[in-house]
Amino acid sequence: MSLYQRLAIALCLVFLLVASVFYITFIFVDKNLRDQGQQQLHLSLAASLVRDNPVLQNSQWDAIGLKNLFHTQMVLGPAFEFYLLDADGNVVTHSYDDSLIMHSSVDLYPIKALTQNLQPLPIYGRDPRSDEPKIFSAAPIFHGSQLSGYVYVIVAGQQYQKVLEHLSYSSHTTMLATLIVIALLLLFGVMLALFRSITRPIKQLANNMQQLAMADFDIDSVPLMPWRKNSSNEIDQLGLVYNDMAERIHSQISQLQHNDQERKNMLSQISHDLRTPLASMQGYVELMLLDEGMEKDKQQRYLKTVYGNTQQLNQLIHQIFELAYLEAGHVTVNEEGFNLIELLYDVKAKFAPSLENKNIRLNISPESGQIVLTSDIAKLERVLTNLIENAIRHSDSGSEILLAATAASTVSIVLTDFGTGIPPQDIDYIFEPRYRASNAVDCKEKHFGLGLAITKQLVQLLGGQLSVSSEMGKGTQFTLVFTR
């Protein structure tokens, strides 16, 4: 059942309840006001009857004469019922046959409350002819100073009630019921239209949610609904929040799919990198096992090749684990203050053999001084190592590498080589895990495409920025920027 249907049913039930309460309340108030008016109008009726009829003032009552008097009065006023009560409330005579009398006595408290003004109107007393309390008029009868009884007049008797009920059913009640039904139908129609205007956008939003869920949150195949911005309408606000959430989910799913594909590609390529040295190692080991009389020089050459392959495997596995830890966020930063110039010279010293073998000069600027930087010295050293290693690999013999540091509001480290440069089509991909440049100067030096990806992750972890510019045939420049 839809929200609109539930609201419509709830509205119908509420209006039926309200209409019932309204009708019952109206009937009660109407009867109360009518009874109050009738009783107020005929309040002195019994007293006038006592005052104007000497037969009621005699010490000995003439029952037959009083019965005739009451009957005559009832003929003149059919709505009235007349009774003579003694001082204890017992019915002495009345205007009806005895067979019609159900109660032979009347409670005196309502009579005293009326004659002594003890409570507001309407006051209801017992009707000797029925069990339903009725409004009445009453007056005491005194013989001298002694109370002899009461004249008790039911103002709205049974004949009046029958006529009133017939008229109420035929006209008043019908008109009231008709008005209530018309008002309810009009109000019900207005409320249904209002509910539809409220629930329509909710239904549209629910349908949009279902369609997007079935389409795996592909907002390209299922466009998001437009909602009014800066609106005070809660449905518009809900729609905007949902659109933002759907776009974020779509972006995250796309990123996860991209990462999954990248991971598959990387694993495929890494497995190739692992198989190549392993296959080489296996081949040389098998040759040595088959040729038991292998010459020592040849054996040493094979072992040297196997050892080189084990170094390649060790380097690759180390880089894989390092990149995995960085991407998983399991690496912590231990910051401390240090002299950046000293760190640059320490890193240069590590590459002295490589620089000498390739006849490459690594110049540091400034040659001396102090630039204080607060960072993780070990991770920054790893960054510089990767960048210098990459620069050496892509530099010609006899060329130069410049490593310059400057300090102002930020600390900048610029590494410039004058090697082969990076092809323009590769510049956007050099920090991806499996980037492998095709322009390394020395093809014999194996590298596995993870160094620059690790460098990028480390720089981000340290809160720095890494950028690159390159020109084919002229060289490449990496720029690191850190806050002090």
TrEMBL record:
<keyword id="KW-0812">Transmembrane</keyword>
<keyword id="KW-0808">Transferase</keyword>
<feature type="transmembrane region" description="Helical">
    <location>
        <begin position="6"/>
        <end position="29"/>
    </location>
</feature>
<feature type="domain" description="HAMP">
    <location>
        <begin position="196"/>
        <end position="254"/>
    </location>
</feature>
<dbReference type="InterPro" id="IPR036097">
    <property type="entry name" value="HisK_dim/P_sf"/>
</dbReference>
<keyword id="KW-0067">ATP-binding</keyword>
<keyword id="KW-1003">Cell membrane</keyword>
<keyword id="KW-0472">Membrane</keyword>
<dbReference type="Pfam" id="PF00672">
    <property type="entry name" value="HAMP"/>
</dbReference>
<dbReference type="InterPro" id="IPR050398">
    <property type="entry name" value="HssS/ArlS-like"/>
</dbReference>
<keyword id="KW-0418">Kinase</keyword>
<dbReference type="Pfam" id="PF00512">
    <property type="entry name" value="HisKA"/>
</dbReference>
<dbReference type="InterPro" id="IPR003660">
    <property type="entry name" value="HAMP_dom"/>
</dbReference>
<dbReference type="InterPro" id="IPR036890">
    <property type="entry name" value="HATPase_C_sf"/>
</dbReference>
<dbReference type="Pfam" id="PF02518">
    <property type="entry name" value="HATPase_c"/>
</dbReference>
<feature type="transmembrane region" description="Helical">
    <location>
        <begin position="175"/>
        <end position="195"/>
    </location>
</feature>
<dbReference type="InterPro" id="IPR005467">
    <property type="entry name" value="His_kinase_dom"/>
</dbReference>
<protein>
    <recommendedName>
        <fullName>histidine kinase</fullName>
        <ecNumber>2.7.13.3</ecNumber>
    </recommendedName>
</protein>
<feature type="domain" description="Histidine kinase">
    <location>
        <begin position="269"/>
        <end position="484"/>
    </location>
</feature>
<keyword id="KW-0547">Nucleotide-binding</keyword>
<dbReference type="InterPro" id="IPR003594">
    <property type="entry name" value="HATPase_dom"/>
</dbReference>
<dbReference type="GO" id="GO:0005886">
    <property type="term" value="C:plasma membrane"/>
</dbReference>
<keyword id="KW-0902">Two-component regulatory system</keyword>
<dbReference type="GO" id="GO:0000155">
    <property type="term" value="F:phosphorelay sensor kinase activity"/>
</dbReference>
<dbReference type="InterPro" id="IPR003661">
    <property type="entry name" value="HisK_dim/P_dom"/>
</dbReference>
<dbReference type="InterPro" id="IPR004358">
    <property type="entry name" value="Sig_transdc_His_kin-like_C"/>
</dbReference>
<dbReference type="GO" id="GO:0005524">
    <property type="term" value="F:ATP binding"/>
</dbReference>
<keyword id="KW-1133">Transmembrane helix</keyword>
<keyword id="KW-0597">Phosphoprotein</keyword>
